[in-house]
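=== RUN LOG ===
request id: a7f3
mode: sequence -> structure
chains: 1
length: 62
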Amino acid sequence: MMAQVKITLIRSLIGYPQDQRMTVKALGLGKIRTSVVKNDTPTIRGMIHKVEHLLKVEKVEA
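=== RESULT ===
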């Protein structure tokens, strides 16, 4: 089974560029303190890296 990560939006998107807002939306996050669990793929890692200042990322234990 592939490793998974829990991604939580911890900061407001107000004042951040449109591309960062789109990245957060593409991760499936909308409101502050919402969380999603995603497979830990290079694509998801790249998206996390782009907006890591807005997120909290935790490994999910199987």
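=== NOTES ===
The first strand starts at residue 4 and ends at 9.
Helices lie at 18-26, 42-50.
=== END ===
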